[in-house]
Amino acid sequence: MTPTRVLVLNSGSSSVKYQLIDMADRSRLAVGLAERIGEETSALHHEPLAGGGKRERHGRLADHDAALEAIAEELAADGMGLDSPELAVIGHRVVHGGLKLTVPTLVDDAVLKEIERLIPVAPLHNPANVTGIRTAQRLRPDLPQVAVFDTAFHSAMPEHAARYAIDVETADAHRVRRYGFHGTSHAYVSRKAAELLGKDASEVNLIVLHLGNGASASAVRGGRCEDTSMGLTPLEGLVMGTRSGDIDPAVVFHLGRVAGMSMDEVDELLNKRSGLLGLCGDNDMRQIRRRMAEGDAAARLAFDIYIHRLKKYIGAYYAVLGTVDAVVFTAGVGENSAPVREAAVAGLKELGLAVDGELNAAGGKEARLISPSYARVKVAVVPTDEELEIAEQSYALVASR
Ligand code: ADP
Q1: Global pTM?
Q2: CA angle 136, 37, 114 (to 5 degrees)
Q3: Beta bridge partners of 89
Q4: Using CB atoms within 10 A of its CB, is residue 54 exposed (0-12), middle (13-18) or buried (19+)?
Q5: Which residues, other chains included, contact 144 with Cβ-Cβ below 8 Å and sequence gap of 6+?
Q6: Residue from 211, 277, 284 to probe ligand 1 pocket by mutation (most atoms less than 8 Å from CB)
Q7: Strand ranges in 81-223 using DSSP code E only, listed in sequence order
Q8: Rounded Cα distance, 135 and 159, in Å
Q9: d(CA 264, CA 39)
């Protein structure tokens, strides 16, 4: 029997998300989340999708090792444990692959070292990713482990988009350049959008807007990334749930000199207390819309700033690409918020962009067009599926060996 199952692990600083996917029919066998790892209130939410219903565990999971062991126990209770001969590979989401790790990669000691070497440019993410890989290796030393990098899709960016205009020697010495993130989603969504347009990915130019709690835009020419809004870290670009996105770097010096804030305090401000949350106290678009309906001025302004930035990126990437086949919305906000989609393309008829009110409001879980038939540039909603993409890439790599 050829093993066809892939366990996808997405290890964050205090959480591990996982999915067990059978590549024979791309069905999901189990999904789950271990959260608040390291705290007394840790929880594990496990759902076997073949039946049996959701299960919960509460109580401290001391570290990622404990979390992964608990996940393995839950899977084993459903007869799908890590020792199952049907498991082909464990696919890990790794946030930063830098300049060297630009394709899905079979993990060995050298690869792990390189992921560790990148910790200074991804201090929040890469350490957890390394822990996840090491723990999985300990639990199943014989099983291939594949790392799929969030930065990989963007590694095709031309140098003129990837470099900041700062002293080259300083930049190179400290690996300061634009790497981009959410690449697995941008890659998956670009491919699906091309399918929706009935074309090959190599034939279409797309502006992809991944609007979740984190948010990023990318300009994709013929299936390759030409520019993306996140940079050295996931802080640059669009207004996000709690991150500022683009800001004059001098704000950092100003807050240091005038407000006496430390580097760490400014870091925390821009990453955790900014964006929609900083502007109006809420980072969930649903709540912001509810408050707007009640006439809340702060929520309205936060929404307007969010849309203004989004529009600037649509315009910028239109100019970068020259011609655009479709603007594609994805992730939590992009897939679900009709008002955001409508506002983002409002007034862009001269660019060939419009949404059809009814199609936009219709909702649905499938990839779909929401532009009127006359629109020169299509507008699409394409649900992202980073776990499936990681599973596809990991499985393809082990299947080709
Ligand atoms: P991430 O993976 O970055 O945590 P998601 O892509 O799951 O985020 O997006 C989460 C966000 O999506 C929520 O914070 C919320 O703002 C938004 N969201 C989810 N559902 C809806 C909805 N029905 N309408 C508007 N926004 C939504």
Answers
A1: 0.94
A2: 45
A3: 6
A4: exposed
A5: 88, 89, 90, 106, 107, 397, 398, 401
A6: 284
A7: 87-94, 105-106, 145-149, 205-211, 215-221
A8: 36
A9: 23
Which atom belonging to ligand 1 lies closest to the Cα atom of 213? Answer: 3
| CA–CA gap between residue 94 and residue 105 (Å, rounded) | 10
The tens place of each residue's pLDDT in the chain, 401 residues long, gives: 789 999 999 988 889 999 999 999 999 999 999 999 999 999 999 999 988 899 999 999 999 889 999 999 999 999 999 999 999 999 999 999 999 999 999 999 999 999 999 998 888 789 989 999 999 999 899 999 999 999 999 999 999 999 999 999 999 999 999 999 999 999 999 999 999 999 999 999 999 999 999 999 999 999 999 999 999 999 999 999 999 999 999 999 999 999 999 999 999 999 999 999 999 999 999 999 999 999 999 999 999 999 999 999 999 999 999 999 999 999 999 999 999 999 999 999 999 999 999 999 998 899 999 999 999 999 999 999 999 999 999 999 999 88
- Identify the CA nearest to 42 among candidates 59, 56, 54: 59
**Could you tell me if 28 and 390 are in contact, meaning their C-beta atoms sit under 8 angstroms apart?**
no
Q: What are phi and psi of 7, to 5 degrees?
A: -95, 120
Burial of 36 (0-12, 13-18, 19+ CB in 10 A): middle
Q: Which CATH superfamily is domain 199-386 in?
A: ATPase, nucleotide binding domain (3.30.420.40)
Q: Cβ < 6 Å from ligand 1: which residues?
A: 212-214, 241, 283-286, 331-333, 336-337
Rounded-to-integer distance, Cα 381 and Cα 327, Å: 9
Q: Record the tokens describing residue 365, joined without a space.
A: 């879980």
Return residue ranges of the chain for CATH 3.30.420.40. 5-149, 199-386
Q: Which residues belong to the active site? A: 150
User: What letter does residue 352 receive in the DSSP assignment?
Assistant: T
Q: What is the CATH number of domain 5-149?
A: 3.30.420.40
Nearest to 151 by CA among 217, 98, 114: 98
Asked if 242 and 271 count as a contact pair (C-beta separation under 8 A), the reply is yes
How many CA atoms within 13 Å lie on the side-chain side of 301? 8
Question: How many whole angstroms separate alpha carbon 400 and alpha carbon 392?
Answer: 12
Tell me if 184 sits within 8 A of 134, measured CB to CB: no
CA distance 135 to 66: 9
Q: What atom in ligand 1 is closest to the CA of residue 214? A: 3
